[in-house]
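Recap from last week: sequence in, structure out.
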Amino acid sequence: MKTTDSTPLSGTQYTLQHGAYTASIASVGATLRYLRRNDRDLVVPYDAEEIRPSFRGAVLAPWPNRVVDGKYSFNGAAHQLALTEPQRSHAIHGLLGWVDWTLAGQAPASVRLSASVIPQKGYPFRLEVEVLYSLDDSGLTTTITAANPGPSAAPYGASAHPYLVAGEGLVDDWTLEVPASSVLQVTEDRLIPMELTDVASSHFDFREPRLIGDTFVDHAYTGINYDDDATATVSVRASDGKGTAITFDRGCPWVQIHTADKPDPAVSRLGLAAEPMTCPPDAFNSGTDLIVLEPGASHSVGWRIHAL
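Predicted structure tokens:
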């Protein structure tokens, strides 16, 4: 007898609720599918019966952003990753974005999902990765923990890909604040990292909140100005003063900002991608802030999305 799989295209759904906050986590990619406060969207959502648009809301590991040409060397060995961004010929956003993660624990306001990075061509290392999503009065906290049970050290980095929503309208209508003094310049066509530059007197300078307008950004920022509590916050606000923010600590010395420009006007600039990262693009080659997970070691990093 034939049976029909009733699982939504985006995977098993886990709904979290605490106070005014609700969230839905989809198992494919351990993805934040929506986050709301009093029915106001804080991130760009998508439907459970929809294949996730690109990496919207997904966990990015064991590297964020791009490995240029998918090539890198580690501990004297050369590796070639699959080119998962074929239009630019790079390996993008790690190996777990389209994996169906397994439930490891659940409560009304939290869920823990797990997945394994299997040794494979281009990344011959085993990692066990968990992500914990937890709601409380202060918003949604995401914590990613990776452990290396294998016999050799592994290169590692992590991030996630939420698109923040300030309110009505598009990115153009919102005010952005990014407390960072440097930006990583990239080539126009393939977004290959070049050099760090000072944001001062450039269109990348959002240290003081200002209207985004028609500014295009798809760049990694660093030189983060952390507050007295050792955290930094990237925020977007609508004209009514309401908005959404993502707060992270020194575990993320980089943050990727993207105005989400798309060829189709119907889906372009719907939200502001703000991705706290443990390392910059192409860290597998540059070595900048690259985490090396020794056998038996683990690493955790996290951030919090909240309403303003």
